[in-house]
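chain below, 201 aa
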Amino acid sequence: MKRVKAIYPGSFDPPTNGHLDLIERGSKIFDELVVAILRNPEKDPLFSVNDRRQMLESMTAGFENVSVDTFHGLTVDYALRVDARAILRGIRAISDYEYELQMALMNRKLQPGLETVFMMPAEKYSYLSSRLVREVAQLGGPVNCLVPALVVQKLREKMDVAHKFNIDDDGGGPEAAPEAAQRMSPEKAIDAKPKSRKRKS
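prediction:
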């Protein structure tokens, strides 16, 4: 029987539990699965390609038939270079399907022998995306249930550095104003509050 090799392309910025779910299930369907990180110089990613590769390699270390690689250019060209016969893609919603269908049809036009396999995420990850994880992390929200522990740590390191630069640039962090208010007497604190303006009719 001929072995089937597939690629799972994406930016993975950062890798999420949803990505890991698809990788785990895809590893059970295909004989070999390559998680392929797209190098896109036009984007300004949160994590470098090397950082994302290290995270994914750590996350997938327990899967013997899963490897991690990087590529640039057309996905179909990369698939041909690594002798892959299928592209694995996740679909979370109707909006995903419309985009992925266009991409799958274009890939078929460019390389008829390459199949696209769509996989639905687990219900608990159906809303999850790297973009949402970045936004929650940047606003200081918890992401423990959204990404693996290693990614949580990497996000904290990124956010701590960004927070430090904000403090240095602004001359004080978010806590600066409350601390100043605490040093005021109650009367001065009341006087320091901005006065409300009457609405003109």
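Residues 149-170 form the longest helix (22 residues). Residues 9 and 36 are 5 Å apart (CA to CA).
thats it, cya
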